[in-house]
């Protein structure tokens, strides 16, 4: 075991060897091979290339050198192409702070039975008058940056649960295809985290409509890890034990305190609401529609139909009568 593996428990060390093909005897060579590829992308500013940093990309791509380098390049390219997103990229930024305090994201204290960190999102908490969807994305990315420092989570990964209870059609109408694509680029294509499952619960019909929009941009591996539970919490409990879940998900723990993770990141600044940051990210929806990267918009314009969330007047479908597109019975 090298010093780079010092933070791993014996169980996780074995898991990294078996599942990720991590070999302590060739670890430094693996890292150097990825680092040597940097010269092939002079168009990207690789702002960090130390061993520990590159290692998390190797773990995210099961020590496939080329795929690890591609992820590393996309990580920095995403930040170059979306510079405004990463201005004042810290928990005290006004938009990020407000999103964090509303539980975007929530982070459960207990790991699941695979050692994965569980993130929770209560979609209805989104106060669109105070912060944007992009502020929520920034808060999630900032949180992942903090958590991915833990080598145990680099190996074991994360699980995401999204509760769509009381998430209105009006709120959903603000989730434009461009915004959703921006999130997919940032989380699926440009961040060194292993997501073991993405669970939707209590989702209304219009969330299924949104899913059909983003589905073409999801990798096959990602699609297989998205579970639409609807109101069937028993199917969720088959994958995540209720003993570690709050009561909102039919678990045995008390209701989740939305400020838990925000207090961890903000510490004594949690209760300070006096800050007004002129650099807070506030990109208009129109700009997001027009100013995503060319590779994004070429693809999205070819598949996205206008008015995707237009309510079907003829059918007048009520949320409670809708059947999930994907369900776990």
From TrEMBL:
Locations listed in the record: Cytoplasmic vesicle, Clathrin-coated vesicle; Early endosome membrane; Golgi apparatus, trans-Golgi network membrane
Pfam family for this entry, one: CRAL_TRIO
SUPFAM superfamilies assigned: CRAL/TRIO domain, CRAL/TRIO N-terminal domain
Entries under InterPro entries matching the protein: CRAL-TRIO_dom, CRAL-TRIO_dom_sf, CRAL/TRIO_N_dom, CRAL/TRIO_N_dom_sf
Alphabetical keyword list: Cytoplasmic vesicle, Endosome, Golgi apparatus, Lipid-binding, Membrane
Domain of life: Eukaryota
SMART domains with a match to the protein in the record: CRAL_TRIO_N (SM01100), SEC14 (SM00516)
Membrane topology: Peripheral membrane protein
Domain CRAL-TRIO: 96-257
Presence of keyword Membrane: yes
Family annotation (PROSITE patterns): CRAL_TRIO (PS50191)
UniProt xrefs under Gene3D superfamilies: Alpha-tocopherol transfer, CRAL-TRIO lipid binding domain, N-terminal domain of phosphatidylinositol transfer protein sec14p
Disordered: annotated segments: 291-329
Compositionally biased tracts (Basic and acidic residues): 308-320
Function, as annotated: Required for normal morphology of late endosomes and/or lysosomes in neurons. Binds phosphatidylinositol 3,5-bisphosphate (PtdIns(3,5)P2).
The name this protein goes by in its record: Clavesin-2
């Amino acid at each position: 075991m090298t010093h780079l593996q010092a933070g791993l428990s014996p169980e996780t060390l074995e898991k990294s060897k078996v599942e990720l093909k991590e070999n302590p005897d060739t670890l430094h060579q693996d890292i150097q091979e990825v680092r040597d590829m940097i010269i092939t992308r002079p168009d990207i500013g690789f702002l960090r290339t130390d061993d520990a940093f590159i290692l998390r990309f190797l773990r995210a791509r099961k020590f496939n050198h080329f795929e690890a380098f591609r992820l590393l390049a996309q990580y920095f390219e995403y930040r170059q192409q979306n510079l405004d997103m990463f201005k004042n990229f810290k928990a005290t930024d006004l938009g990020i702070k407000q999103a964090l305090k509303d539980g975007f994201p929530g982070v459960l204290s207990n790991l699941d039975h695979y050692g994965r960190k569980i993130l929770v999102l209560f979609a209805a908490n989104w106060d669109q008058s105070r912060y944007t969807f992009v502020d929520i994305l920034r808060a999630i990315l900032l949180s992942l940056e903090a958590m991915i420092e833990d080598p145990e989570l680099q190996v074991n990964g994360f699980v995401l649960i999204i509760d769509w209870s009381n998430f209105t059609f009006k709120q959903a109408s603000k989730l434009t295809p461009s915004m959703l694509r921006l999130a997919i680029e940032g989380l699926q294509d440009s961040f060194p985290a292993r997501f073991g499952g993405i669970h939707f619960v209590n989702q209304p019909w219009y969330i299924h409509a949104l899913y059909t929009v983003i589905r073409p941009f999801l990798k096959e591996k990602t699609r297989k890890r998205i579970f639409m539970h609807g109101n069937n919490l028993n199917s969720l409990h088959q994958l995540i034990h209720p003993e570690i879940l709050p009561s909102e998900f039919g678990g045995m723990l008390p209701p989740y305190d939305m400020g838990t993770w925000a207090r961890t990141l903000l510490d004594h600044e949690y209760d300070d609401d006096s800050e007004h940051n002129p650099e807070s990210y506030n990109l208009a929806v129109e700009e997001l529609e027009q100013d995503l990267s060319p590779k994004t918009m070429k693809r999205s314009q070819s598949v996205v139909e206008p008015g995707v969330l237009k309510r079907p007047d003829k059918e007048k479908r009520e949320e409670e009568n809708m059947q999930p597109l994907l369900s776990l019975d």
